[in-house]
């Protein structure tokens, strides 16, 4: 898919190959490039990787620049995941907290953040970021989080 990006799937083996890794980074950057029109039903997103001491990958976070009707219903502006072996150490809380000023610079305020209704850990992460629960829809809790801290 090259520079067009837009959610190309990558395997671990591809990411370990320097040429493929460079292509993956280029595609992820293209996903955020507002000058490249996204395919139907997709939106621009900024992807952030979180690493420990610049070496160990801990997780990733995606900030969707706009919301389609399905994202407004269930997906939200910000989605994140932490590598299973790095969970329960506060990384998700830090990731979400650090992403809010970036979302604000993208013109998002407040940000919609969702999680499964039975995901207590993610619910606590969102609440720690100042999330205010609006409702539950289709098994998803929906929270609005201010991105401007002034």
TrEMBL record:
Protein name, UniProt field: N-acetyltransferase domain-containing protein
A UniProt-annotated Pfam family: Acetyltransf_3
InterPro entries xrefs: Acyl_CoA_acyltransferase (IPR016181), GNAT_dom (IPR000182)
Stretches assigned to the N-acetyltransferase domain: 11-150
Alphabetical list of PROSITE patterns matching this protein: GNAT
Gene source species: Kribbella koreensis
């Amino acid at each position: 898919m090259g520079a067009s990006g837009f959610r190309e799937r990558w395997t671990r083996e591809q990411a370990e190959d320097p040429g493929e890794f460079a292509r993956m980074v280029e595609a992820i950057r293209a996903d955020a490039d507002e000058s490249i029109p996204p395919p139907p039903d997709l939106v621009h997103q900024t992807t952030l990787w979180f690493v420990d001491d610049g070496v160990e990958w801990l997780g990733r976070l995606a900030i969707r620049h706009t919301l389609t009707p399905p994202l407004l219903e269930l997906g939200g502006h910000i989605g994140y995941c932490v590598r299973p072996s790095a969970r329960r150490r506060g990384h998700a809380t830090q990731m979400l907290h650090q992403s809010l000023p970036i979302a604000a610079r993208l013109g998002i305020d407040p940000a919609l953040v969702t999680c499964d209704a039975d995901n207590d850990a993610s619910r606590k992460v969102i609440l720690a970021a100042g999330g205010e629960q609006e409702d539950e829809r289709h098994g998803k809790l929906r929270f609005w989080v201010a991105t401007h801290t002034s």
